[in-house]
Amino acid sequence: MRPWRPIAYYVRPPPFDPGSPLSTPPPQIIREVEDLRRELRYHARLYYHEGRPEIGDAEYDVLYRRLQELERDHPELLTPDSPTQRVGAPPQEKFETVEHVAPLLSLDSSESPDEIVRFDTRVRKALGAGVEPVYILEPKLDGASIELVYEEGLLVRAVTRGNGAAGELVTENIRTIPTVPLRLRTDDIAAPTLLSLRGEVMMYVSDFADFNARLVASGSEPYASPRNSAAGSIRQLDSSVTASRRLDLLVYDVLHVEGVDFARDQDGVEAIRSWGFRVPERIETARSAEEIIAYHARFDADRDDLDYEIDGVVVKLDDLAARRAMGATSHHPRWAIAFKFAPRQEVTVIEKIDIQVGRTGVLTPVAWLRPVVVGGVTVSRASLHNREELARKDLREGDTVRIQRAGDVIPQVVEVVEHGEDRSAPFAMPSECPVCGTVVVEDGPRTVCPNRFGCSAQLKGRIIHFGSRAALDIEGLGEETANLLVEQKLVTGLADLFSVRPEQLVRFEGFGEKSANALVAAIASKRTPDLQRFLIALGIPEVGVTVARTLAEHFGTFEAIRTAGTEALVAIDGIGPRMSEAITGFFQDERNAAAVGALLAQGVEPQAVEVRGEALPELGTVVFTGAIPVPRVVAETAWRSVGGKTSGSVSKKTAFVVAGDAAGSKLEKAEKLGVEVLDFDQFRQRLAEHGGTIDGEG
Ligand code: IVH
What we know:
Layout: H1 27-49, H2 57-73, E1 97-99, E2 109-110, H3 113-127, E3 135-141, E4 144-151, E5 154-160, E6 166-168, H4 171-175, E7 194-202, H5 205-217, H6 226-233, H7 239-243, E8 248-258, H8 265-274, E9 284-286, H9 289-302, E10 310-317, H10 320-326, E11 336-340, E12 344-357, E13 363-374, E14 377-383, H11 387-393, E15 400-405, E16 412-418, E17 441-443, E18 446-448, H12 456-467, H13 479-487, H14 502-506, H15 513-524, H16 531-537, H17 545-555, H18 558-562, H19 566-570, H20 577-588, H21 590-601, E19 621-625, H22 632-641, E20 645-647, E21 654-659, H23 665-673, E22 676-678, H24 680-689
Parallel strand pairs: 2-11, 19-20, 19-21, 21-22
Antiparallel strand pairs: 1-6, 3-9, 3-10, 4-5, 4-7, 7-8, 10-11, 12-13, 12-15, 13-14, 15-16, 17-18
Helix pairs in contact: 1-2, 3-9, 12-13, 16-17
2-(butylsulfanyl)adenosine (IVH) binds next to strand 3, strand 8 and strand 11.
């Protein structure tokens, strides 16, 4: 187990308040405070980072309390990065959502060595003949992903991954993690003006076991996995709760930096280390697919001996310029891949099999299992997919089965290991929908309730999907609320969502005036949805994020998509005959047409988007620097949405640089290279000339 000092950290000190100086403390006090802070940081470092303390807990406590005492007597000496200031803020009511400095992309992933060989081939092709790739190999940590932002060396923000573009502001909680520097160490590398880092908040397996045992002993529900536990711990509204959990932070990526230029990932990792962070262990380099595969095998063999969870290894191209050249798809960078481990398996008993009806009406048999921990996660249910799969595996209640879990996906039943005593009859799919009683139909291996618009299970599913993050992202419209709306008959079709009134909600448990108003307002705010999101929200078969974007960008308006014929659809890159049939079929179905018509009649108006012609005008690459009035991603997205490109570094090829206040080395470089420099207003104008606007500015 990792060393841990259960000391005064838990006690909330007086909050940091710079105030006006009451008096100037005598110089020997100032010196003592500075010395104490230096000493405490030094000992914390030995203890938490290096695991070789020079002093005991009691001695550390004496120093800590002396510093607290001096800061109490001389509040003007308090600084936000003092070791006493890890738990300071009062509990919050909710978390604010904020944009990341740069998007937190996810990784393409595979379990197959062949895929790694193909990845290597793609990289070599992109680099061109004669250039040998160098890969950085790291464990893929299974914790909670976080962005940390430092300005002039001071921790100013910590944001959860969220949807990748924006997440929850959890700074106060992250400050309580002892291995997070409140101020960067600058012994080797100076503090950049702006630094955004990406890392993983981890709870060690041994600490997790301990913590869960304590939860159970106190009558609380245990967490399912160290990852859930880490994620739950950083989403506490009271940071003193987070402080009581044993968490660590490992940092593996410089997302964005200003004032320092790195050429390779290795330089970034070195800098991360020198600034005082812990980095993942066993970072290595490789020059071939064989070396990557060998590293993966070594880690896999050691996996059960580690005190933290990993679900694979991450392979990244070291050369940062080459990364920029390779770029990213909408989901993941092309220069990296996660090489996952094979799923973990366990044996347990099927206690019961029943049926679930989803948003598309498919009846899915579900196995209720005797709970079992599979690779750190407690599993009590597994999908049995469909009638054919169930028959093929001949799974029955009472059977002992092998189950497996692969990352986040729903656990699967692999095979029967042993039949139950007095084996029950094979499970038969019902002939009627268990929710609405309609006679089911068989569609290939699937069993479907055809009552698409009358079955309450399907309506609930459609509402949940409509409000989900990838769709219209309606806050407060989750499973519970959807159930309530349907069961109380407040909503009989999606369009009804827009006519729900707060008075109707407050009658029900779980709704106060405030939450009822908030839900109605959240729904109303989606009356002019983004076209792509609206398409996703409708739940058209085959239409996910990528197809929705393709359709939106190709057709521009909802009307054009709704009336598009099959030929027009198949002509689009990325849309095959099956998809186009599914799309036209959806809009031609009378009841779908009526449901869509009802939404439009409620005043729902999906926003038109600029149609992307084949040949985009070459608008050139733009670099932003300094403090601009909107988050950088917003400005970058606006420029990219009119067909331009953006980059983090200035070169001769840069079209122009947009400089905000306090612009630094990039501005100098632009001036040196004779690259045009615009202020933000001029950028707005330039954007408008190409038909673009800044999101949120109309
Ligand atoms: S690199 C764009 N390195 O895995 C590349 N990610 O789907 C940035 N993760 O949620 C990610 N360990 O938080 C990288 N050593 C590591 C990682 C790592 C864990 C997480 C990451 C993300 C997921 C990738």
